[in-house]
Structures are given as structure tokens and as C-alpha cells.
Amino acid sequence: MTFALALEQLLNGVQLGFMLFLMAAGLTLVFGVMGLINLAHGSLYMVGAFACAAVAAATGSFWLGLAASLAFAAGAGALMEVTVIRRLYSRDHLEQVLATYALILIFSEGTRWLFGSFPLYLDIPPLLQGAVSLPGGAQYPLYRLAIIATGAAVAMGLYLLISRTRLGMRIRAGESDREMIAALGVDIRTLYTLVFALGAALAGLAGAMVGAIQSVQVGMGEPVLILAFVVIIIGGIGSIKGAFVGALTVGVVDTMGRFLLPQLLTFFVSPADAKPMGAAIASMLIYLVMAFILAVKPRGLFPAQA
Amino acid sequence: MAETAVLEINGLEKSFGALKATDGVSLTLRPGEIHALIGPNGAGKSTLIHQICGTLRQDKGSIHLSGRDVSALSVAERARLGLGRTFQISSLAGEFSALRNVMLAVQARQGSSFRFFKPVMKDASLVDAAMERLGRVGLADRAHVPAAELSHGEKRQLEIAIALALDVRAFLLDEPMAGMGPEGSKTLTRFLDGLRQEAPILLVEHDMDAVYALADRISVLVYGRIIATGTVDEIRNDPTVRTAYLGDHA
Amino acid sequence: MKREVSINAAMALALLAVPIIALQMGQTFTITLATRIAILALAATGLNLALGLGGLVSFGHAAFFGIGGYAAGILSAHALSGEPMIFGFEGSQAMLTIWLVAAVIAGLVGLGIGAVSLRTSGVYFIMITLAFAQMIFYFAISWPAYGGEDGLSIAVRNKFPGLNTMRPMEFFLVAYGLLMLTLGLFGLIRSSRFGAALQAVRQNDVRVASIGIKPFPIRLTAFVLSAMITALAGALYADLNRFVSPSMFSWHMSGELIVLIILGGTGRLFGPLAGAALYVILEFVLGGITERWQFFLGLILLAVVLFARGGVMGLLAGKARHG
Fold this sequence. Notes:
CATH architecture of the largest domain in chain B: 3-Layer(aba) Sandwich
Strand order of the largest sheet of chain B: 6-7-8-3-9-10
Number of domains of chain B: 2
Order of helices and strands of chain C: HHHHHEHHHHEHHHH
Number of helices of chain C: 13
Helix content of chain B: 25-40%
Radius of gyration of chain B: 18 Å
Largest sheet of chain B: 6 strands, mixed
Distance between the termini of chain C: 9 Å
CATH topology of the largest domain in chain B: Rossmann fold
Radius of gyration of chain C: 19 Å
Largest sheet of chain C: 2 strands, antiparallel
Strand content of chain C: under 5%
Oligomer: heterotrimer
Order of helices and strands of chain B: EEEHEEHEHHHEHEHEEHH
């Protein structure tokens, strides 16, 4: 184990963390403002990836694809909100879970219908190909650094949006008192659609960016969705700050666990056993961290006001 | 004071940030009495009730029930020791019939919820005891109506039947008169008058007619402090109380 | 109430009659469908105890379903290979032993998951149960000893005393018998003191605590019982397919179990059976018409949630009443 390798893994963890933040921010915002649990958030991630891959393939431009991913995911989100989600705000969580589960089936099968069962591939744009030298001598892909930078920029943007703008003020007011904000004359329906579309666009952006380092396929959103759930459970549902801290925690713990645990176990068991055992334990690590945090703080690290 | 107090609260304090919601409250509930707690809105009555029944933990002070310190016990444990609280609005189990609500209380009193096979409706020890309590509050003919469908007044009666089923040592009644019409208030007042034989009542109430008619003693809570405790006449003529609270009534 | 009883009886009889008729006509596939219905109904009955009676929306019951499946797969694999497991236990091909092991392990895991998850409520509970099930899913995938991602085949269906379980009809009877027994147990529990407390806790936990019944132990017990029942179904499901794979742990499975309950009618005794029958038939019919049947299933499900609250039993037998 060298320093360079460890640094590379750490950066991978941070990259995963920022990607998860893009997913978790939308989820937690929608829950915080509208009180809705949206399982179909992973479908919006998938929509973003497919839109990006399809448009990039048609036009030859990753950047047009990226723009398309934002537009399509936001559009799909707005459509979802207006047709279905809106009817669920007053329902209990069980019905929200079920309806959004149905949406997953519709989106997944619909996408398979349109694009077939084979994965699509998305190339990294020429501008971001290549690698950067890290201290210690390792080379690190520029594209992954770009994901980190984008995630950081979005986090900063969200912070400014929520703390400094009128829209943000309304979001904060909506979180604490739905009736008050309606009484203030703010059109709450439009606000909800906007918030939902914003969350959707972030998920689509995440899907598009990850699409270039993994394959673009139906069902790609689901594992990410569940990780994003872990993120917001750890961070405290409804808190953007919690989503940020939770996302980086999950990203780094998961990546470093997979890297370090098999090596650590060689001190205790034979190398042949250490690898599978380490991998198996590492795959459970973030859930154990989650359980531990919940045991200490049942409402997450940064609980939103009850 | 020869008899020991059933409920004894000593130097209770509770703050939310800079706000002192309960500021050194002490009061006692003696056997057989109705002790009314009155005070303007925001005086800290509900915070105090929450601490007595255990949903909120006090910062300082102690609560004794029949001489036993219950300050650190959970809601369920205090209930099992005989603290019977009625609620303003929510019913126990709205989907269940009135009868099954009271049966649940009898079951809780018997302390045996981990029985898996015997149907409750065939369990005479539950059904009979519950029917008897329903009869006492005048709800026998409404036994099979779902609690959620009972009228406002009937829900109050059901609440009291549930408390009776718990064989409580002290009642904690939270605004039982609220939302009752004049007729209902009168009936309920008569009923509460007799109820004090079962167990003493700490009565939190806005309806001053009912308070004057029922209370043996009254405590006045203002800004988290008890500014006076005394008989109805003493409170009526207390100048501090008049300026702080009763001013516009008197 | 009377009406619900007769509808329940009709459903129980129909589920038995269909395979018998199919057997006469030599339609083995129909028997397999009926067996699938019975097993899924059993799994959902387990969840119905937690979700329907207790209001505990567990999105992680696939964990217990999978544990049951792997108990069947692993025990029979060891019995066949002769390679001893821990404590020198040689595995088993006897269904009764497998069921016992499945229920005990699922109960213990349920105790652990429940103890952490039940500290929370609402949306947290949904997500945490989902996350724990996912943890077990990933463990099953990355643990290579029992097939990892590829799963584990069961060469010969496990044995039940006096029956040849390789015959579809006899295996159906095992599943059917266990389902009916469990439904009977569910009915007893529902009307018992425990059931009364559990249902009251769902309706108003604060009030139930105020009369001296602690909600947490009631909920935890329900969660553990629920996990044990669902594990039994998992063991049977593995035997039905003669195959177990990590997909039994997948969150789709958890979702499917919830769907069955909602389709059938939450908290109703025969809701899971009605839901499972409807689901399997829909899957069969839609799947025969189009490859994209899940798309239409999604639309139907959405329509049920948005417009037909109460499920099949709600439509057939009216609103649920409690004595």
C-alpha cells in the first residue's frame, strides 16, 4: 500500500461522495419542503444518463448531452410532480412509497422500451480526458476531478440559493410552515413543482456525469438511490448540510473500506480468505456506520426541526 | 396536613432556550380533592402537564406519586403507577369501538399485553370490566360505536371511562370542558363532582364556572410560576391574581 | 364482517380447487402458479402482521424472505455434499428442520434490525429497513462461499414427511397447508390482547403509552414474528424454484411484498392472498400479452394507490370493522 494509491482511493471516495450529494440533495429537499419520500428519484438519475448518452451520440457533443440531461430530468421531474406526486403530499408515507415504486416500474420499463436492453456508452469529452499528477507520483483522471468540482460548485450554489435568494427564503418558509407561506400569497403549487424539478435536474446531472465512467443502463439509478437514502438518514432527513456531510461520509467510508479492509484482514487470516471476507464486510460497512449513527442520534447528524 | 399528598410536585423547572416555561412550580394534590390549575394562554400549563405525565423531562425539581419519586420514569411507567391523564382531542384508538378502547385500558391495568391466542372479545374479565366502566360514564348504549364516530362529549366520557378502567390514583384532566355545549358542561360538571371520590383530580380548565363549582383549591399559573394557591374565595379576592389574570373578568 | 368471512372461505377453497382441477387436466403449470400464489401470500401475511396490524412500513422484508431461501439452499447443499457446517451440523433436507432454522435465524436478524429501526418512525423507518435489507443483499453478493452473485441450486426439493415434494401437487399442498395454518395464527393474534395492543399502537402510540402499554416491545415482537413468517415463505420459495440467489434479498422483492398487501387490502386477514392471486394472475396475463408487462403493472398499481384505496378486499367486503 503506497501513499499514492491511498490518495487516489481517497479522491475516488470524495468523488463518489459529491455524486451522492447531487442525488441526496434533491431527495432531502423534496422531503424537507413537501414531506414526500420519492423512490423514483433514481429514475430521474437514469433519465439524465440516457438523455445525455442519446443526445451525445446523435450530436457528437458531450456538452449538448449534459445540457439535455438537465433539461430532460427537470422536465421529467416536473411532469412527474404535476401528474402524480402532487396528489401524494397529503397521503401517508406508505402510499407515497407505493406510488413512487409504481413510477419506477413505469420509468424502467418505458426506458427499456425506448432504448432496448443493451447498455449505452458515453465517452468522456476530449476537454476532460487525460490525467493530473498527484503528489506522490500517481496519475488521477481529470474527469473525476471535474465531477468533484461540479459537486462542490452545486453545493455552494445550493447554499447560496437557500440562504440568499427569494426562492430559497420561500423554501425555508415552506419547510417550517406550509400554511404561512400560502397565506403570504406565494403560489405553493408552483413552488413545489420548481423544487421538485430542481431536485430532478440535480439527479439527472449526476446520472449524466456518472454515465461517462460507467455504462448507461436501465436500473442504474437504484443502487445509487439506496446509497442516497443512507446519506440522508445519516445526515438527517430534510437537511442540505446533513446531505453534504452524509454524502462525503458514505463516499469515503465505502471506498476506503473496500480498499483497506481486505488488506487489513491479511494480518488476521490467510490472503486467500482475506480478499472475499474483506470485500463482504466492506460492502456492509456504510450500513453499519448508519446503524451506529442512528443508535447515537436517531434523527441523524443534523436533524431538521420536528 | 395529616394526609399525604397523592401527587406532589416540588420546585419544577423547565426552559426552552431563554424561555422559562416552568419556573419553580410546586403543588400538591390531596386525597379526595379537585385541585384546579388555571392561567392565561401561554402560562405554561401544557408544558407542566407534559412534565407531570412524562412526555417532557424537567430540568430541575421532582414529581412524587403516592410518595414515590416518578421524576425519571417513562410515560407508560407513570401510567402504570396510577396517573390517569385524559386528552383534549385525540382518542385512544379511533378505529376501535368504545368498548374495545376501554378493554384495552383494562388489559393495560392487568399488565398482560403479551398474550397471543385468546380472543379478547371472549375474555369476560376484559369485556365485563369495560362494560361496567362504560355504564358508569353513561356510554353503555354506545359501546359498539367506533371511538372516532362518537360525539365530542361522548369522547370525553370515553376518556374518563378509560381512566376509570386504569384504577388510577390521580386524575390529570386536560380541559375536559373545552368544546362542550352548556348542557354537556353541566352534565360533566356533575359527573366530575362525584369522580373525586374515586381519586383526586388535577383539573386544568378555562371554564371558570366549572372551576368555581368544582375546585376545592385553585392554583394560578402565570409565566411559568404559581402566583397563588387557595380556596375559590381566596383566589377570587386575591389582588395579585385579579391584576394578573382575572382582572377583566371581575 | 359476515361477508368478509364468506369471501375468505371462497378464496381459500378456490386456491385449493384450481390446482386439483388443473391436475385432472394435466396442467402442471397452473399448479405451479397456484403454489407461487400460496407462497407469496404467506410471505405477505408475515409482512401484514407488521405493516397491516402494526403500521410498520418495512421496506426490508426481502431480507427475511432471502434468509429463509438461503436456509433451505445452504442446509440442503451441506446435506447433499456431506460437508459439515459449524458445530458439526451436517445440514438437512427435511423441510421441518429447515423451516425451524429459517424462522430462528430470521427472528434473530429481525430482532437486531428491529431494535435499531424501531427507535425511529415514519419515513426513517422505511428507509432504514430498506438499507438493512440492502446490506444483506450486498453481503450475499460478495460472500463467495454459497455461490455469491450466481446463487445456489437445490438439486432435489427438500423433503416433507409422507409426501413426495417433487410432485407439483404434493408440494402445493405443503405450501397451502402452511399458508392456511399461518392465516389461522394471524387471525388469532389479531383478535388477541397482543393484537389489540399492536393495532392500538398503530392508531395512536402516544395514547397507548399513556395508559401504561409500552409501544416499543409490542412493535419489536410484531416485527420479529413477521420476519419469522416471511422466512418460512422464503424457504418454500427456494424449494419451488429449486434455486436461491441474492435477488431474493433485492429491494424489488421488498417492494413486491408491500404491493401484494396494498393490492389485497392492508391489515385484512385474506388481503395478502387476494393481493398475491391478483399479482400472479396479472403477471401471467399481462406477461402473455406483452413483454413490457411491468410497465402496465406500474400503471395499474399507480391507479390503485391514487384511486382505489382499500384494495381488493376493500372492494369485495367493504370497509374493515373492528368489533
